[in-house]
Each structure stands twice: as C-alpha cells, then as structure tokens.
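Re: your question about Copper-binding protein MbnP-like domain-containing protein

S., sorry for the slow reply, the queue was backed up all week. Below is exactly what I fed in.
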Amino acid sequence: MLFLFVFLSSCQEQVDPVLEEKGEMIVKFDNYVGNQTMVIDNVGSSNFRYANGKGQSFNITRFGYYISHVKLEGPNGELFVDEMNASADASQIKGYYRVVQGEPDTYNIHLKDVPAGQYNKITFTLGVREDGIQEGAVGGILDRAAGGWFWNWNSGFIHYMFEGHSPASPRDEQRLRLHIGGWKSIPGVDGNPQRFFDNNVEVSLLFDATVRVNRTMRPSPHIHMDLLKVLGDADFALQNNIHSPSEGVSFAQRIKNAFVVDHTHQ
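Result:
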C-alpha cells in the first residue's frame, strides 16, 4: 500500500505542471493597399503610389488602428482571453494595442500566459470600447495628451486613422483625412439626425492551420489588412475629411472584411 501511495503521488506531481503549462503567441499585422505593401510618404508628397476603387490616385502620410479585447479559441475547447486594464499608469495598461504604419515595434502583439493547447481562431475588436475606460486620466497609447487618438467622451476614440493626399481632393494641399471612430450610439432628438455611433468592429478570423502553444512552441499568425477594402467605393472628391462617428459608419461597416489571416508560423 505504501508503494501504491508513493506511485500515485509521483504521478500527480508530474501531471499538474502539464495542466498549468502556458506559452505565448505573437500576432503580426501587415498593412496593404490592395496587393501592394503600405508605404508612408511625407506630408506634402505628390508621389501617388495607389489608386482607389474609382481610379483616384492617392498616397498615405499617416495610418494606424487600435486593437483590443483579443481572444483565442481552439478546436478542443481551448480559450484564451487577453487581460484588459485601462490605467493612468502606462506600464499598467493591458489588452490595448495600436498598430501604426512606419513604427515596426507596433506590428507585433505579444500574447502571454496562453494556456497550452491547440488554437485555430482569433477574435479582436477594431477600436476601443467605452466599457473598461472611465472618464478621467488614461496613460500610454490611450492618453490623448501623449498622442492618443481621442475625440471626446461622447465620440470616444478614433479607431482607424488614414491620412494622405489625392489629386481628387478639393481640400488645401489635396489633403485626405479619414478618421473612423465612435463608441456610443446616441439617437438623434427633436428631429435631428443621429450624430454618435458605436463604430467598434468585432473581427473573427480562422487560422490557415491549427497551431500549438506550449512552453517551447510560440506560433505567429500573420494578419493582412487591406485599406482598399475599407475605402470601398469612396469618392475622394466628396469623402475626403471624415471627422465624426456619423460620417464614418459606412467605412466602419467595411472594416471586418479588410482583415484576413495570410499564413501562420508554427
């Protein structure tokens, strides 16, 4: 009986660490304009590298978007939900990321403490939800005083930012400014049209293959984002200066289809 007790205890000590094993996943975002890699030009540049669906040429001088509420799922019930925390202390902010074209350090999202197992799906929010952020001081990439993309407490954050130039734009210096955001749906009153919309977008993507996470395996799905799919049939002669939630609704509705998993490194 003593031998049996020692044997069972030994087995138990070997199993527990396996059940608690965790690893990492690195999610990489690559931005494209159609089949062309996105390139940032200087403000004022007349080097028009791209064309929209209407054949109007344009370039890009500033581009990026917020990612939050990341979730991983697997075929056997595996689940990882990225921890969320908004704080005035930048070092304490968790679960909020901003991908900024031209800043390679922002392209990779490191997900830590992912339970060991298989995963084949990722879900995230394109944008910053109202829940979890209290009116007051927030730090890091959420801090408007330090460059956070924030409008006000009704409109919320700019989730998706595109700026550039196009000969089709009648604005000074042929400027384009498309700021897509908004985190509250507030109906219009007294016959006035609705101005505030929740333009957060939930994106769910299947990996091209099931990947495994453990202490030694750190997979990396590469997600491609295509700006042309967000622009859709936009006419830069008319839609060249989007700065409110209501103006951005049609663009926000197209964002979900702009993201695809291109490939995954195991």
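Residues 22-203+235-260 form one domain. Helices lie at 2-19, 227-231, 245-255.

Happy to talk it through on Thursday.
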